[in-house]
Amino acid sequence: MNENYIRIYQNAVPDVFCDKMIEQFENNPEQWLKQDRKNPDRNFQMLFNQIHVMEHDLWKDDVKYMMDIFQMYLRKYKEDCNIIENQWPLKHGFESIRMKRYLPNGKEFFSPHVDVTNYATARRFLVFFLYLDNNDAGQTSFPFLELGSECKKGSLLMFPPMWPWLHAGEKPIDKPKYIIGSYLHYV
To answer: Domain for residue 1, yes or no?
Structure first.
């Protein structure tokens, strides 16, 4: 995807891991947090359920595994984007990992947005989105760049979350879309 700092890594995690995560999500509805926000002034809307997996002991081993995967692909990302040490923060940390599910009901999606919009989110400098199932729709789209990332099981999408990378979580059409996300933070 050219030099826009958007990278997709196929087969970042095995299918068995993806299947396990989806099953755990569906088996723990008491952990779901509904996200339903609208801002008509900004033409913004989001609707989905999510779990803050780092807040529950059930997910502890999965979190450790994902952190190892994210670290491994972070090194690859820096290499693939020709990022030198002077471009990179001396220290960084991870935001709490969240798993999201979008139902194929025509209502659940995340309209075009950026993930750094205020002082609290200004610590974010890199997105990690891990897709847990194949889906014919529901891709992450980048409208101004005329790009999109397919929902491909086990693939990892990474990109900066700031204003040049407007993106949207499109509606799935035939089955639920499951995605795991986190961010790198300045510390």
So the answer is: no
